[in-house]
Amino acid sequence: MITTLDVAIIAIYIILVLLGGFVVQYIKKVKTHLMFIVTESKAPWYIVMGLLIAEMIHGGQTVGYTGWVQIFGISALWYLIIIAVGFSWQIPVAARIRKEELRTIPEIILKYMDAKCSIIVGVINIFFYVTVMAAVCYLSFAAFAQALFGWPTWFSMLLIAMICLIYSSTAGLWSIGWLNFMQYLLICIGIGIAAFFGVQGAGGFTEIGATLPTGFFDMTPGPVGVGFITLMIIFFWFFGYMIWAGTNRSLMSGKSPRTTTMGALGATLGYLPFTVLITLCGISAYVLYTVPGKLANPDLALPLLIKDFVPTGLAGISMAAVMAAMITTSANCLFASGTTVSYDIVQKFIKPDASDKYLNWLARVTMAILAFAWLAVCVWWQPLVLYALMFAYAVSAGGIIMPSFFAYLEHVWGRTRRTLL
After folding, report:
1. Contacts 24+ apart (CB under 8 A), 22-31
2. What angle do CA 383, 385, 391 make, to 5 degrees?
3. Are the C-beta atoms of 345 and 142 separated by less than 8 Å?
4. How many helices (H) and strands (E) does the chain have?
5. If you compute the radius of gyration of the chain from its CA atoms, what whole number of angstroms results?
6. How many Cβ atoms sit within 10 Å of the Cβ of residue 256?
7. Do residues 300 and 82 touch, judged by C-beta distance below 8 A?
8. How far apart are CA 343 and CA 351, in angstroms?
9. Are the beta carbons of 10 and 144 closer than 8 angstroms?
10. What is the DSSP letter of 31?
């Protein structure tokens, strides 16, 4: 049962997140635009780790994944496996990427192709990121808050929009990196608490093993098939992560190639305990709700698990952890979108002599416009967001991944385009 104490913990968490950005800004005194967008490549390994891991852990891998276990059984684990495998492939190339002076994906495209391609890729990146932000953050958090607190949809979305905006616009990548690392720790603790009490509530591992039906353990990839899973591992998650704005900037933020490699390794290894804990949440919820037929909506599995079985006070920590998973990813999306406008479009092609103060101001204003514009879309036209999300993935595959494939190979491995083509 959610109590006033749990709500107070959530409130304290939100206040700390909002204050955190201003504290980092006070400490780092971020003034230059290069420091704002990539920390002037001075970040330690754990900042790189925090930035990278936020690309992986989000609402779809907390609330969403727990729900998928209710539908697909243990085969839902394939979702986490393909992300973990694909993401780990950044480790061998992290140092090589960091050695380059190209800090953003449109900048890479500009070097190897032309200005038009660079602008097109930048605009597609913006559309992709703000759409994912809206679906992962606004809609997921609204459903989560409605199930736990009964908050109205508009209030939940407005709250999360303001948090993400302040989170990402104070000290830029410095504040996002510091806060992402701290929130990763919170995510592991909070999901660990939910997993522990979920397993206990389901009667322990012995009872869980005896209750689960035989079909639950079928690891067959299901309707998507082995071929699709293989394609996702080899192509989409490897090159997808590599050529998305947030990942590239995360790698470029490290203070040395070795630091960047350590950050990529830390993010990959740090993802593993999360996958175990969130899977335990999914299995526990399956025994508690799906087997007895108590669950009408699979997406409510994790909120109900926290609400029904995690003790007062600890439930607030678990809820804060789920919020952290949504906020970190969404803040990265919003930040990448705003700085693509200021750095990759305005500074490169419209106003190359613009001051750092102007560019930082422009990035923040762009983030505010995008945050509240998509908030309005989510409140009044929710179905449009889901259609836009599917369209964004399709456009990103054709408009970012395919045109960038050879250019990025050349960028990473130092080969010529003529050889590749």
Report:
1. 22/170, 24/170, 24/171, 24/174, 24/175, 24/178, 24/179, 25/170, 25/171, 25/174, 25/175, 28/171, 28/174, 30/171, 30/172, 30/174, 30/360, 31/356, 31/357, 31/360
2. 110
3. no
4. 22, 0
5. 21
6. 15
7. no
8. 10
9. no
10. -
Residue 310 in tokens:
């995690």
101 phi and psi angles, rounded to 5 deg: -95, 5
3-state secondary structure of 102: coil
Report how far residue 143's alpha carbon sits from residue 216's, in angstroms, rounded to the nearest whole number. 26
* H-type alpha helices, 31-114: 33-38, 45-53, 63-72, 77-88, 91-99, 105-112
In the 8-state DSSP scheme, what is residue 316?
A: H
Per-residue tokens: 268: 């990959």
Residue 196 clears pLDDT 60, i.e. is over it = yes
- Which whole-number Å values give the CA distances from 155 to 138, 139, 201, 258, 374, in the listed order? 10, 12, 32, 44, 14
Q: What is the pTM of this model?
A: 0.89
Query: Which residue's entry shows tokens 């509240």?
Result: 372
Q: Could you identify the residue written with the tokens 């809820």? A: 319
Three-class DSSP category at 148: helix
> How far apart are the C-alpha atoms of 415 and 57, rounded to whole Å?
33
Encoded tokens for 86: 């694909």
Type of residue found at 77: L
Q: What CA–CA distance (Å, rounded) separates 135 from 397?
A: 18
Compute φ and ψ for 219, nearest 5 degrees: -90, 5
pLDDT per residue as tens digits for the range 317-353: 999 999 999 888 888 889 999 999 999 999 999 999 9
